[in-house]
Design a protein that fits this description.
Layout lengths: L2 H5 L10 E5 L6 E7 L16 H4 L8 H4 L10 H6 L9 H4 L4 H4 L9 E2 H4 L6 E2 L4
Parallel strand pairs: 2-3
Antiparallel strand pairs: 1-2, 2-4
């Protein structure tokens, strides 16, 4: 798969750009509704994707060999679905032909997140809808 094909798997939901909390004892992942400072809250795309690791050093570069070990990828994520041998959902832009279906289907974080500079303590922002 070319890098362009790999990148096209991203559905633009923005869920991977949410801050997450991991319980030190259980390893359980809790999603928050707090977005990375580079996430455009309207488009659900990174404001500076090419240079994101300069601004957010712990931003994870997804690759086929990492996907299975990234337990925090949401169940709707195309990278995760393909790694699990499952088909893409109807709302995925590669299936629907429309990048807006991810938003219209209510899968994206559009309208449901806060910017990290306005959030305060992350543990006050735990949500269940992200998974």
């Amino acid at each position: 798969m070319s890098s362009q094909e790999w990148e096209s798997l991203c559905d633009g939901c923005g869920k991977c750009c949410l801050h997450k909390l991991e319980d030190e004892d259980t390893g359980e992942i809790a999603y928050t509704n707090v977005a990375c400072r580079l996430l455009n809250l309207g488009t659900c795309l990174c404001k500076d994707y090419e240079n994101r690791q300069k601004h957010v050093p712990d931003c994870v570069q997804l690759s086929a060999d990492k996907v299975e070990s990234l337990r925090w990828l949401p169940s709707t994520c195309a990278y995760r679905l393909l790694a699990e041998g499952k088909p893409l959902e109807w709302w995925h832009p590669l299936v629907s032909g429309d990048p807006n279906t991810v938003h219209e289907a209510g899968i994206s974080v559009r309208g449901r997140v806060v910017a990290e500079n306005r959030a305060g303590p992350l543990d006050h922002h735990i949500v269940s809808w992200a998974e």
